[in-house]
Every structure is written in structure tokens, then in C-alpha cells.
Write a structure and sequence with these properties.
The complex is a heterotrimer of chains A (410), B (304) and C (283).
Chain A: H1 2-23, E1 26-31, E2 34-39, H2 41-63, H3 79-92, H4 101-126, H5 135-152, H6 156-178, H7 183-203, H8 205-208, E3 214-215, H9 238-241, H10 249-274, H11 277-287, H12 289-294, H13 299-325, E4 327-328, H14 335-348, H15 353-368, H16 374-391
Helix pairs in contact in A: 1-2, 4-10, 4-13, 4-14, 4-15, 5-6, 5-7, 5-13, 6-13, 10-13, 11-13, 14-15
Chain B: H1 2-32, H2 39-61, H3 65-92, H4 101-122, E1 127-128, E2 136-141, E3 146-150, H5 151-173, H6 175-185, H7 187-192, H8 197-223, E4 225-226, H9 230-245, H10 250-270, H11 276-290
Antiparallel strand pairs in B: 1-4, 2-3
Helix pairs in contact in B: 1-5, 1-8, 1-9, 1-10, 2-3, 2-4, 2-8, 2-9, 3-8, 5-6, 5-8, 6-8, 9-10, 9-11, 10-11
Chain C: E1 18-27, E2 30-40, E3 45-49, H1 56-63, E4 71-78, E5 81-84, H2 90-95, E6 99-101, H3 114-120, H4 123-129, H5 134-138, H6 141-161, H7 176-188, E7 194-198, H8 206-222, E8 226-231, H9 234-240, E9 243-248, E10 251-256, H10 258-263, H11 265-272
Parallel strand pairs in C: 3-8, 3-9, 6-7, 7-8
Antiparallel strand pairs in C: 1-2, 1-4, 4-5, 9-10
Helix pairs in contact in C: 3-7, 6-7
The chains are: A mainly alpha (410), B mainly alpha (304), C alpha/beta (283).
Chain lengths: 410, 304, 283
């Protein structure tokens, strides 16, 4: 057995050396005469050695009789309490002594992705429609708020529902012609749609500001109380009203609570609609479309509703993003964002709300702590996506809880 | 008229490149039903490897451009194919029986890894290569516009045609191709009949990667600039081409590639260069609406 | 009266429930169904039999709207009026015309629970009650009542098919015979006028098969709807059907009560093949 592992390791090392030879062994350098090559074959040896060692370790681990089982507890019964604990922890987070501004910013970012994940979960996890262009609806929400606020002076609270409705409208407009396509065709069309939206944002200078984006977007207020250092004539700031010393932290914490509430509403909505006929029809459609049709369910309508609702939540998240950043540009809405959100949903375990929280913490939260290693961050991110899939192909939490029970709740 | 002809030539050249990449998508989709999202990055690696191989060959071998190109072509195909093989072996094969989305996410992960790996290994700056194959001839000359056909364009289209011919021969005439087609129809049955399915899938990835490598070399020569990010857009375009032509169909992939190349060239030539991608996807949507299985795809009868 | 029974009074003079007239369906150059006409009566079990490839499943797919026949018409006489099925979408045939079906290769929602499968079957009714989910989201009494009724109907059918104890299990984890019965229960939860069963006895053991016969008879007698049944197995068909239609190569070769069909020389020939020349003394 051990001999087999050594041979495998040697072969793996050999392959790694061959792979690394052109890409790591040579480096393209700009010189006075044009492009030239520098060599650094030591890196090839390192790569080969590391891969061989890794393969050897894996081989020996597999050969050993002591199997190491890495698995999360699959107890559906503890899910409800875990959800409550997480929600309470999230509410209490800003009060913790260690919750500095930096942490709150990161937590806000993670919550945006959790909300986007929960939105996409309706489309991919429940209805089983592969959407690779989800970020388009996020962009629609963000630009909707930015433009409505700048051109018509509408407040965040008026724009939020409008942005959601607009994004849902885009969802319907895109979905209506293409939802009858089979899974993978739908994927490529949604991907194309995402790119089209981005290209339009980039090139429609007069309206969207082009690649420079829109800056100076109105920040949100707390029932009319602004979070600025000083209020306009005749108004009060948040700090003045509550007799607090002015601090920029107020806004950070306010934004955190805002996205927390938005995300929790998304969650509540999903948990609730899963138990309604349309929610069950989504899941049924994911399982077997033909059976659905034989039971009188109109697949187009059901898919469209999932598409529109998912888009709506992305629209909400988008306008939150715009008001938080105060600045948006097409760069924030690239395909990689769609891929990250999709990865969160799939890694979480399709359809599992808590799984999505876990996956968002893992994929978005964790890398935030390694910002200093910026270059290696995305490499590790991609690697983690592959490894988690290899380890748990159906996601971190994949057990499903029925939406209705005949017997007593277990 | 002259302008039209020039766009036609440019479009066909570009389309040949897309078509070569699209074949990799269409074969993999045909055989294991997955969108190999990392295929665009394989093409990007091919471009880098070809550039490195070409420079290495000229440094070692001395002057001859033709010899250096041949060496670069073979080395690139070989090494890029190895990358394609490895990706399948490491990231996809263990997920063959997993839920449908698992390999797709794994592929997106691989694509992120390869992109950032290249950026780390070769730097983020674009890599310019001065024109290697110069010259050509003027097909038509009017007062203010000359229609040029460069040697390089001829080389690209000819090489694509040769590769397509070889490829079609392999798929339709050899026992390997027969095994491939059998695996595509029914993987379980093929393996029961003694076909080593794992091997066939591996070979499919190797072939797709080798063709993408050729496309990478062509792009390096044709545009003269590459960077670590070129795989993404070319990848989606080529996948769009595969879907447009009818996914699973080899001539379809080539046809789709040519169409996308032509749409892009004409759109940029006559309308706006900014919106050429919008035009491409717009036409894809239109085609799918009226022919949901693509231009040359076989219409599926729903089995109930 | 059981909650599953249809509560619409049937007109006194009972005409046919389903009329199939001159239906043809061709794939490429091949006729799967060729100029077929027959009718099925309410409160009767009509069996469609025939050798493999006779066009039985294609016929079913035409009736339930999954295929559109190229020629011919299919009429369902519903208490709310007659409907031309070949003009309706498949989901409308189930929702409006009240035609439910099962599939040859069982199509359950495998990852959903048994009860959820039966709730999905009542989608149309529940959607209406929930005002496209709005009333449901707000938790209005109107929807809660409708959901309670739906659970009652599901419970009723679970009892009829003997799956009450498995109500909260994953449908895909049930043994084969149970899955077949669940699919019938699911179809019945749509409250159909006509139930189409595609080889319901396939793969069942003799005991399960006998139970199935009992279930189908009770659906005919207690729920008062028409049943259309595809079956391979002559012995099953003869046991329960009131009327038999025999197909071969897409054509109807015989039609009548089971006893007459059993003795029909054309049927025997289709099933056993033409006698070989060697066996038949030439004249």
C-alpha cells in the first residue's frame, strides 16, 4: 500500500513539474528590446516537491485503516435553535467590546452576501433554475437607487421598494422569453444578460456615468435624522437628537442593523413562502417538471415568480450597497460576483438557509481577514471552492426539512 | 463593398479562433453534460505557454521564425493538454456522480485559481509581442480603402481547417472516436461494453485543451497582446458559440464560432465597438428562442 | 361521503367521458398512433392493451397534452362543459379538464415528503385560495382553511393507499410498490374526472397487484370517475376492466368487453404472433 502511495506521489510530482515548467519556470519580462524570458527553475522544483508531498500524505491517509471522517452534524432538529442563536448573536454583535469599526464593516459585507445568497437561493436552491447572471439584478437595484436619488431627490426609504420592484421587473422581462429553455441554456443566457447589463452600465455615459460610475450617492437617514457631522438648516443629526457625541461609528452601526434587518426579512419571507403552494411548486419543479405539468402546475408562471422574487431581493441588496458605499461603478458588478453568490448557495447546501450563512462566512468573511495577502487571497478562494465541493458535493448542510408534517413535529 | 470584404475576412479569422475554443466546450458537454467553465482559462494558459515557448524557441534555436513557430505550436499543445488533463483528473472526475451543480462550482473555482495563478506567476501587466508573421497581400484596392489579407490570417484559417478535418476524421472514422460517441450516448452502457469511460473522458479533455492551446497561440500572434484575463471573455464567447451551433455538435461549434466572429466584426465595423458583446448575446437569445437546441443541435423529443 | 368523492352531480343520461376521434401521431415517418378512435365511459375502467411499441404511451401523452396529435380530436365531457384536449396545454388539461395521470417510470418529487407530494397536487386550488400567495404570506384565515382542507384530502388518500404511517418520509425512499400507490394518490388529489394510469401494475408482486385492483375498483365505484388504464398483463386487465381497447402498431385491432377480447383471433395473433408456416399445414 505504502509503495503504491510513493509511486503515485512521484507521478504527481512529475506532472506538477511539467505543468509548472512553462508557467513558473519562465517569467516574461519587459526589457529594452521587447519581451524576453527570465528563468527560475527552482520554483518548478518547489512546486513538484510540494505536490508530491501532498499526494504522498493523501495516499498514506487513504491507505491507513483509521479513516478520518470530517462531517458536519446532520441533525435537522437543532437547526431551528441554531438559527435563533445566530440571529441573536448578529443582533448583539455591535454591543460586544471587540466590535470595532473594522469588524462591523466586515460583518456588513458578509451580511450583504448572505442576503444575496438567500435571494439567489429562491431561484437556484428552491426552484432549481441555474442563474449565472444574478449580479445584474444587484446592479439594477444599486443604479436604481443612485439614479432616483440623484435625479429626483428621492430618499433611500422611497427608493428601496422601487429598486426592488424595478429589479423584479427586469427579472420578469428577462425570464419571460428564456425560462422555457433547459437548465444549461438558461445558465448561459442569464450569464449573457449579466454581461449585457454591465456593458450598458459601462457605455451609457450620459445616464450611468460610464466606467467612472456614480459618486456622492445620498447616505441613508434614521427617520430623517442624518448621520453627518452637521445637519442642514432646520434639521437635526442623529447625534444631536439623541444627545450623543458625534461619531462616524453611528452610521456604520446603523448600516449594519439595516442590512441585518433586510437580510432577516429575506430569510423570514423565504421560510414562509416555502410552506405556501408556490414555494412547494418551486421545489416540485426542481424535482420533476413533467410531473408538475401533469398536476396542473404552469411551469412558466412558477419559474417566473421565483425569478422575479429572487431579483427583487437582489434589488434591495443593491440599493443598500449603493447607499453604504456612496459610490458605485460597473466594476462592482462583474461575473465573479455572480459566481461568488452562486458558490455560496451551492456550498451552503442547495436550499438550506443556515448553510448559506456558513458558506458566506467561509467564502466572504474569512478571506476578508487576509486582505494583506491580496494576491493569494483569490487563489485560496478558488481553491477553497474546489476543495469544499470535492469534500461535500451536495453542500455543507444538505438535509431537507419537510414544509408540512402529518405527524407530530419530531 | 471593400469595407464589407475586410470585415468578412477579420470576422472569419476571429471566428476560427472562437470555433477552436468552442469545440472543447461542446465535446465536454456532449460527453459528461457539464459546462467546463475553466476551459476559457485553459485557452488563456495556452496563450501564455505559446508565448513562452515561442520566445524560448527563438532564443535557443536562433533565427528561423517558421521552426520556432512549429516548436511553439507542438510544445503548447502538449503542455496545455496536460493542464486540461490535470484539471479533469483533480477537480471533475471525483464529482462525476455528484449533484449537477457540484462540478460547475468546482469548475468556477478552477477558473478562479488558474486566473490568479497566471497573474501571480507572470504578472498582471499585458504582455506585448511584436508582430512575428508580417505581410500579406492586398486583395482589392479602391481610392481610399484597401482590403488586406495577411499571411497570418491565411495561416489561422488554414490551420483551423486542417485541425477540423483531422478532428472530424478522428471522431467519425477511428475506434477512439467510436468509443467517444458511444460514451456520449450512454456512459453506463459504454462501460458495460468494455469501454474505459474514464480514459475516454480524459482524452476528450486533452483534445479540447489542445485545440484551445492552438487558439491561444493564434491569438498571441494575431493580436500581439495577452494578459491573464483574456480567458474569461473568450470563454463565454466560445461557450455562446457552442450553444448557438447546438451544444454537442462539432460542426455546430465551428459554425457558431464563425457566426460569433462575424457578428462581432460586422457590429464593430458598422455600429459600435462598445456594444459588440451585447449584439452577440442578443443574437444568442434570439436563436435559442426560435431553435432551443441551437442551429445544428438535434431537437430533443421529451421522453415521458 | 368521503372528501375525495366528486361532488358534482352527473347528468342523468351518461354519455362517454372521453372521446378519441381519428387521432394520429407520427414521429418521423413512423405512425405511433394511427387513425385511432374510441371512447371511455365515466364510472368505468377502460383498459388499453397491446404489445410493446403498440402506441399505448403515445396515446396517453396525446390525451394528457404532452404530445400534440397531428390529426384528430380528443374531447373530454366535463361537468363544466366539453373541452377539446388537443387544444389545451398539458398543465391546463390537468387543471381545467380534470385529467390526471401516472407515469410508466414513476415520477414522484423524490426529495419531498409523501405528504408534500400530495400537497403539490392541490396546487391550483391552494393557489386560488392563497390569492397567489398573498393571503398565505399574511396568514389569513381564508388560506389556513384551504390548507386544512388540503391536508384532510391528502390524509384521506393516504389512508386509501395505506401510506398514512409514511406521510412524513421522503417519497424517494419508499419501496417501489409504495411509490406506485403514492403516485396514484397524488393524481387523485387533483380531484380528476379521468384518471390515466400508465402500467400501474408493472413491477408489483402478486399480492400488491391484487391490492392495486381493489384500489382501482374502489376509485371507480366510490369516487365515480372514469379510469383509463394501460396494461401489458392480460390477466390484470381481465380482472378489473369493463371495457378493453387493443392496439397493435398504432391501430385499434379490437374493442369490447374483456370476455370477448380474450377470444378475439386478431388479439391472439397480435400477442402470440402469426403461426409459422412450418407449423401450419399448407393447403
Amino acid at each position: 500500500m505504502a509503495r503504491r502511495a510513493v509511486i503515485d506521489a512521484a507521478l504527481a510530482g512529475l506532472v506538477a513539474a511539467a505543468l509548472a515548467f512553462p508557467m513558473l519556470g519562465f517569467r516574461l519580462v519587459d526589457s529594452a528590446t521587447g519581451l524576453s524570458l527570465a528563468t527560475r527553475f527552482d520554483l518548478v522544483l518547489w512546486a513538484a516537491g510540494l505536490v508530491a508531498l501532498g499526494r504522498l500524505g493523501l495516499g498514506l491517509l487513504r491507505a491507513s485503516t483509521i479513516g478520518i471522517s470530517l462531517s458536519l452534524p446532520a441533525l435537522p432538529n437543532i437547526r431551528r435553535p441554531v438559527g435563533w442563536v445566530l440571529a441573536v448573536a448578529a443582533l448583539a454583535l455591535p454591543l460586544m467590546p471587540f466590535a470595532d469599526r473594522n469588524l462591523m464593516d466586515k460583518a456588513t459585507l458578509v451580511l450583504i452576501y448572505i442576503m444575496l445568497g438567500w435571494g439567489l437561493n429562491i431561484v437556484v436552491g428552491l426552484a432549481g433554475l441555474l442563474d449565472l447572471g444574478f449580479v445584474a439584478f444587484y446592479a439594477v437595484g444599486a443604479y436604481a437607487y443612485a439614479l432616483l436619488s440623484q435625479n429626483f431627490g428621492l430618499s433611500f426609504w422611497v427608493c428601496l421598494p422601487l429598486a426592488g420592484i424595478l429589479a423584479a421587473g427586469f427579472g420578469v422581462a428577462l425570464g419571460f422569453p428564456v425560462l422555457r429553455l433547459r437548465g444549461d441554456y438558461l445558465a448561459i443566457v442569464t450569464l449573457g444578460f449579466g454581461e449585457i447589463i454591465r456593458v450598458i452600465l459601462q457605455n451609457w455615459q450620459d445616464v450611468t456615468g460610464g466606467p467612472a460610475g456614480i459618486s456622492g450617492i445620498e447616505r441613508p437617514s434614521f427617520f430623517g435624522l442624518s448621520f453627518k457631522a452637521s445637519a442642514p438648516e432646520g434639521q437635526q443629526t442623529f447625534a444631536e437628537f439623541f444627545g450623543l457625541d458625534y461619531s462616524t461609528d453611528h452610521r456604520v452601526i446603523f448600516l449594519y442593523f439595516l442590512i441585518l434587518i433586510l437580510a432577516l426579512l429575506t430569510n423570514l419571507f423565504t421560510l414562509r413562502i416555502r410552506r405556501l403552494p408556490v414555494g412547494r411548486a418551486w421545489e416540485a419543479l426542481r424535482e420533476d417538471e413533467i410531473a408538475c405539468r401533469s398536476l396542473g402546475i404552469n411551469p412558466t408562471l412558477v419559474k417566473l415568480s421565483a425569478f422575479a422574487l429572487g431579483a427583487m431581493f437582489a434589488g434591495f441588496a443593491g440599493s443598500f450597497f449603493a447607499t453604504r458605499q456612496g459610490f458605485i461603478s460597473p466594476e462592482s458588478f462583474t461575473f465573479i460576483e455572480s459566481a461568488v453568490i452562486l458558490a455560496i448557495v451551492v456550498l451552503g447546501g442547495m436550499g438550506s438557509q443556515i448553510g448559506i450563512v456558513l458558506a458566506a462566512l467561509l467564502l466572504v468573511g474569512l478571506p476578508e481577514w487576509f486582505r494583506d495577502l491580496a494576491q493569494y487571497r483569490m487563489l485560496a478562494f478558488g481553491g477553497a471552492m474546489v476543495l469544499i465541493m470535492l469534500w461535500k458535493p451536495s453542500g455543507l448542510l444538505s438535509a431537507r426539512e419537510p414544509t408540512i408534517r402529518l405527524g407530530e413535529r419530531a | 463593398m471593400e469595407y464589407f470584404l475586410q470585415q468578412l475576412i477579420n470576422g472569419l479569422t476571429l471566428g476560427a479562433i472562437y470555433g477552436l475554443i468552442a469545440i472543447g466546450y461542446t465535446m465536454v458537454y456532449g460527453i459528461i453534460g457539464m459546462i467546463n467553465f475553466a476551459h476559457g482559462e485553459i485557452y488563456m494558459l495556452g496563450a501564455f505557454i505559446s508565448l513562452i515557448a515561442y520566445l524560448a524557441a527563438t532564443t535557443i534555436g536562433g533565427g528561423s521564425v517558421a521552426v520556432a513557430l512549429m516548436v511553439a505550436l507542438l510544445a503548447t499543445m502538449l503542455l496545455t493538454a496536460l493542464w486540461g488533463w490535470t484539471v479533469e483528473r483533480v477537480a471533475y472526475r471525483p464529482l462525476r456522480k455528484a449533484p449537477r451543480l457540484a462540478p460547475l462550482i468546482s469548475a468556477i473555482g478552477v477558473s478562479i485559481v488558474l486566473q490568479n495563478f497566471s497573474q501571480l506567476a507572470q504578472g498582471a501587466r499585458v504582455k506585448p509581442l511584436p508582430p512575428v508573421v508580417r505581410g500579406g497581400f492586398t486583395l482589392m484596392q479602391s481610392e481610399d480603402f484597401a482590403v488586406n489579407l495577411s499571411w497570418l490570417q491565411i495561416f489561422i484559417v488554414m490551420l483551423t481547417a486542417v485541425l477540423m478535418a483531422v478532428f472530424t476524421w478522428v471522431i467519425t472514422r477511428t475506434s477512439l472516436g467510436r468509443a467517444q460517441r458511444a460514451t456520449e450516448q450512454d456512459m453506463k452502457m459504454a462501460s458495460l461494453l468494455g469501454i474505459n469511460v474514464d480514459r475516454i473522458v480524459s482524452i476528450t479533455f486533452v483534445m479540447g485543451a489542445a485545440l484551445a492551446a492552438v487558439a491561444g497561440l493564434m491569438v498571441t500572434l494575431y493580436y500581439g497582446v495577452i494578459d491573464f484575463y483574456i480567458g474569461f471573455l473568450a470563454g463565454i464567447k466560445a461557450f455562446t458559440a457552442a450553444v448557438l451551433g447546438g451544444i454537442g455538435s462539432l460542426p455546430g461549434a465551428m459554425l457558431g464560432g464563425l457566426l460569433i466572429g462575424l457578428i462581432e466584426a460586422f457590429w464593430s465595423g458598422y455600429f459600435s465597438i462598445e456594444y459588440k458583446d451585447v449584439a452577440t448575446f442578443g443574437i444568442l437569445v434570439m436563436v435559442l428562442l426560435f431553435r432551443p437546441t441551437g442551429l445544428l443541435g438535434r431537437p430533443e423529443v421529451e421522453k415521458i | 361521503m368521503s372528501p375525495g368523492a366528486t361532488d358534482v352531480a352527473r347528468p342523468a343520461s351518461e354519455g362517454p367521458l372521453l372521446n378519441v376521434e381519428h387521432v394520429s401521431m407520427r414521429f418521423g415517418g413512423l405512425f405511433a398512433v394511427n387513425d385511432l378512435s374510441f371512447s371511455a365511459a365515466p364510472r368505468q375502467i377502460t383498459a388499453v392493451i397491446g404489445p410493446n411499441g403498440a402506441g399505448k404511451t403515445t396515446l396517453f401523452n396525446c390525451i394528457t397534452g404532452f404530445y400534440k396529435p397531428q390529426i384528430g380530436q380528443i374531447t373530454l365531457h366535463h361537468p363544466n362543459g366539453s373541452m377539446r384536449l388537443e387544444r389545451l396545454d398539458d398543465h391546463a388539461i390537468a387543471a381545467k379538464a380534470g385529467v390526471a395521470r401516472t407515469f410508466q417510470n414513476i415520477r414522484l418529487f423524490a426529495k419531498m415528503s409523501v405528504l408534500e407530494n400530495l400537497m403539490v397536487a392541490q396546487h391550483t386550488r391552494l393557489m386560488r385560495a392563497s390569492v397567489f400567495s398573498l393571503a398565505g404570506l399574511l396568514g389569513l384565515a381564508r388560506y389556513r382553511r384551504a390548507e386544512r382542507d388540503a391536508v384532510e384530502l391528502a390524509r384521506h388518500w393516504l389512508e386509501r393507499v395505506g401510506l398514512t404511517a409514511q406521510a412524513d418520509e421522503e417519497a424517494g425512499s419508499l419501496p417501489y410498490g409504495h411509490q406506485r400507490r403514492l403516485e396514484i394518490a397524488r393524481a387523485m388529489c387533483t380531484r380528476p374526472q379521468l384518471l390515466c394510469l400508465d402500467e400501474p401494475a408493472a413491477g408489483l408482486n402478486p399480492r400488491e397487484s391484487a391490492e392495486l385492483n381493489g384500489l382501482l375498483r374502489s376509485i371507480r365505484d366510490d369516487d365515480g370517475i372514469g379510469l383509463l388504464l394501460i396494461e401489458h398483463d392480460m390477466s390484470v386487465v381481465m380482472g378489473i376492466s369493463d371495457h378493453v381497447v387493443v392496439l397493435d402498431y398504432g391501430r385499434k385491432i379490437a374493442e369490447g368487453p374483456p370476455v370477448a377480447i380474450k377470444a378475439d383471433p386478431a388479439v391472439i395473433r397480435a400477442y402470440l404472433g402469426e403461426p409459422d408456416e412450418a407449423e401450419v399445414p399448407s393447403c
